Amino acid sequence: MSHRGKSLKKKLLSLYGNPFIRFVSRRVGFLIITFVIFLLIIFALPRFIPGNPLATLLYAIREMPPETLQLKQKQLIEQFGLGKPLEVQFYEFIARLFRGDLGTSYSYPGIKVVTMVFTALPWSLGLLIPASLLSWIIGNLLGALAAYKRKTLIDNALLPAFLTLTETPYYWLAMVLLYIFAVTLKIFPTSDAHNFLYFPSLRLTFILDVLWHWTLPFLSILMGAIGGWAIGMRSMVIYELGADYVSYADSLGLPDRKVLLYVFKNSMLPQITGLALNLGTILGGALITEIVFNYPGTGFLIFRALTQLDYPMIQGAFILLILTLLIANFIVDLVYAYVDPRIRTGYIGE
Amino acid sequence: MALLEAKGVKAYYYVRQGQVKAVDDLDLAIERGITLGLAGESGCGKSTLVNTLMMNVKPPLHLVEGTIVLDGKVISNMDRSTLQKNIWGVLVSLVPQSALNALMPTMSIEGFVKDVIRHHMSVPDSQIISMTKKRFEELNLPVEALSMYPHELSGGMKQRAVIAISTLLNPKLLIVDEPTSALDVCCQKQVLRMLIDLRKTGITQSIVFVTHDIAVLKQIADWITIMYAGKIVESAPTDDLLNDSKHPYTFSLINAVVTPEPEVRKRGLTSIPGEPPNLLDPPKGCRFHPRCPKVMDVCRSVEPTLVKIEGNRIVSCHLFPSES
Amino acid sequence: MVPPILKELFKTKKLDISLGIFIGMVIISIFGSALYPNPLAVAGPSYRPPSNAFPLGTDDRGRSLLALLITGIKNSLYIGVTAALISLAIGVTIGVISGFKGGVTDSSLMLITDLILVMPAILIMMLIAAYLKERNPLFVSLVIGITAWPWVARAVRSQIMSLKSREFMYMSKMAGLRDMRIIIEDLLPNMASYIFMAFVLLMSGAMIAEAGLSMIGLGVTKGVTLGSVLYWAQQNDAVRRGLWWWFGPPGICLIALAASLLLISTALDEYFSPRLKGG
């Protein structure tokens, strides 16, 4: 190997020696595998599931007038590569994916799936990101409070509240909030992301209108997600409060609030991991919540596609959603790797 | 004046089934400039006693009665925040039984040191670090350990680091609870060496060494106090106690220890029959009477009192009745 | 006569209340179903608010919402139990094998587990259910069951691994007992409490998952569950029409069932791990 090659190899090896890099590359590898498996599932499902949905679809539209029928058939065959051998179908599927081509909508012919999904995605993210983060922060704080005030009235009242809240589906909360605040009290709008008469722009009135429509869906997801974090954090803090380092720090005279800070720091780590694990659940709940509000996010998009059996849309939306989710997962993993000193120093485990 | 004087101390745990009388009407004096060994079986109340002595009393443990005077200050009626600011870490420090887990995994040693010292003194960080580095060197601890996290240190080093941290503010009284029980022999030696150094350099005045292992006390203690079921049964200088024990329990305890001496083979080992009593409902009279080889009738109904015998030694046994 | 564990458990008020609520609802659903054998039959005029004849009003097709609710509880419970059993079977089996065998088996099984753990269960369920034309309760339970097991497998695996290092295990291995026998006689009895708690949690989650699937229209195709009633409510714009008697009660019942199960599991957990009690 040339001199430059050797020093490059050395550099790469030393990079790999860094425990942080090792951790990150392991996670990236894992997430990529997950994505690939998911793609396989997406590819296989419509083709292998008993009942052959594609054939069913073809059969279902046989009553249509001949021109539409021709068009629809052509669409289906083209989109899914029906009739070609399986390997070719898969190759085309992957090739199209790399080109960023997720096909065109079956229900709205000519409109690209990517366009529709990317129009809807920001609305969903606008709900998801603030709701996930805020519910995580508030939930953890409330949970720590309940743990600190254990055996007092505060905890005895909070715990059952959390337990009930965590089992309350976001969309049902949405229905209740909608009924009380939009239908009965008429404080908030009853549907959509913004008044259709307003043309989207960055003018203040438009932004305020969007926020006004955003409030109830946001609150539904926020309130629904808090319970789970609170319960988890409460258990963690109760557990940590009995830890040896707590009694030692205490016996050296450190004030209670300092010791609590230590407990909080230690309890946060598993909660960050928890955030990564629960992103999928929150996503799912949020999607269904959109339906209640007719909120034009990916949830509503998928719902419509499912009702109309718009398979290319279903497929495309799912792929993009999973991709977003895996990226979010990765970001959380990075944060965790940065925060936990044990990873920074290469601690493998007891 | 003794460094610590405890009179009539009663410390009970309030549990659902009643009161666990872990420390029951106990008097204790710790003189200045000695290493006191506190020994007894597991569950005899040693750990509760030392926590009570520094007034580290949290429910369900309560100080029911008694006064504790530390360095002339009455600490038994101080509130928690005064104790936190002026007493703990400053006058008296406790190195807990689980010192190996006493350090928070997500903070470096120096981070913790800074927090501890900042709470008691207002000193700039850089000074804190240099003070600590000097102290570590004095006590033969590697200075690099300061910037490390607990999981990067070995067991023996963790134990010594915890002792060092506990004595940073030069507390007059240092209490160590089972410091050597979880370590192998070479680490034990290092810990004992450190404790001796702490006394020699004057960083601490007196040390209370709590253990169930009498053999180690022979190497480090000037004076040994034996506890049984929440009460002190005997207290004497080390050699006197080990060679000429007065209380039957002490005698049995020493005989149960394996030592690499030829007499042991002749003597054989004797274990003490029976089990330590349940402190929820201790036996009437002398608490040791169900297991005592020298039990007499009076032992079953009347509790013995602590009496002074030859030269400051104390025994609590009916074999040594009080002068009356 | 009463085993001491039950006696101790019933001292907790939490357990009493939640158990009471849960069993109460089960009984109502069983007896109620007998009273209303045909909930899907048209019983009266449409869109009626609660009245003496119809305590919970009627839906868009004139069906009694009370009848639908009671049958819905029964079917939701059925799906909950079935899905939980499926997840339990998969999770415990994989967890035991993985924890017991260790090595390559363990690594590969855990990789699969982690893959499914990362993928959002709802999306996978939606995906599978979307392509199934006929969805009976068993199918729906299956779909829910095969996505919910990963956490059970992980938890069981760590329990097994900690049990494996205990002395009684070593004795059995020394005695030359075959692996299967060790698993059945030594490991499983020690895990019984844990497996039971996992079942309760799984059931709680399964009922919520079923409702979620139904809300997007991917629930059972025939029959009625709590989720179906909510779905019909949404399809008929019940919220905006102010028909609170349509979407309110099914939600409350669903929450009551799921939350009481969760409370039961929490009470059991506190009993078995005293550190959480703060002792």
| Content of β-strand of chain C | under 5%
Instruction: Indicate the CATH topology of chain C.
Output: MetI-like fold
Provide the number of structural domains of chain C: 1
Uncertain ranges of chain C: 275-279
* Derived structural class of chain C: mainly alpha
> How would you write the strand order of the largest sheet of chain B?
6-7-8-3-9-10-12-11
Roughly how much helix do the residues of chain B carry, as a percent range?
25-40%
Description:
The complex is a heterotrimer of chains A (350), B (324) and C (279). Chain A has 350 residues and is an all-alpha fold. Chain A folds into 2 domains: 17-98; 113-348, MetI-like (MetI-like fold). Chain A has helices at 3-17, 19-48, 53-60, 66-80, 86-98, 113-148, 153-166, 170-184, 204-241, 244-251, 256-293, 298-307, 311-339, 341-344. In chain A, helix 7 (153-166) crosses helix 9 (204-241). The longest helix of chain A is centred in the middle third of the chain and has 38 residues, at 204-241. Chain B has a single domain, classed as P-loop containing nucleotide triphosphate hydrolases (Rossmann fold). Helix content of chain B is 31%, strand content 23%. In chain B, the strands form 2 sheets. Chain B has an 8-stranded mixed sheet, with helices on both faces. In chain B, strands 2-1-4-5 form a 4-stranded antiparallel sheet. Chain B is globular and about 65 Å long. Chain B starts with a strand and ends in a 9-residue tail after the last strand. The model of chain B has no long low-confidence stretch (mean pLDDT 85). With 279 residues, chain C is mostly helical. Helix content of chain C is 75%, strand content 0%. Chain C has helices at 4-9, 13-35, 65-101, 103-118, 121-131, 137-148, 150-164, 167-174, 179-215, 226-235, 244-272, 274-277. In chain C, helix 3 runs parallel beside helix 6 (137-148), helix 6 (137-148) crosses helix 9 and helix 7 (150-164) runs antiparallel to helix 9. The longest helix of chain C has 37 residues, at 65-101. The radius of gyration of chain C is 22 Å and the shape is elongated. The chains are: A mainly alpha (350), B alpha/beta (324), C mainly alpha (279). Chains A and C meet through helix 2, helix 7, helix 8, helix 9 and helix 11 of A and helix 4, helix 5, helix 9, helix 10 and helix 11 of C.
